[in-house]
Amino acid sequence: MTNKHELVALHLANPAWTARQLSDALGCLPAYVYVTARRNGLTLPLHKPRHERKFGLFVYGDVIDILRVEAEARSTRPSYLARLLLQRVLEDGLVSAVLDDGDDK
User: Fold this and answer.
1) What Å distances lie between residue 42 and 64, 70, 79, CA to CA?
2) Exposed, middle or buried: residue 47 (CB in 10 Å: 0-12, 13-18, 19+)?
3) pLDDT in tens, 76-105
């Protein structure tokens, strides 16, 4: 469970982050970030910088069911867990290992 001290510390370390970015990092809802920031006198940016890009990803059927179970076990949202998994696999160069397709670089 996220508390206000974690939010304040994360905001101070990343002052350019939006409420959405903070909530994704903490695994909580943006509404909690907005309210807690306001109550603690924090000013959040309204939008992400334009250079950041994003796209939607649809997850269906059995995959979303498994993702929901895993996210619930970690007290977070399925969308956050999916983003975190994808980020870690890409940043750590684990795509070939996960896909087991032998395409080593």
Assistant:
1) 35, 32, 26
2) exposed
3) 889 889 988 998 999 888 998 888 876 665
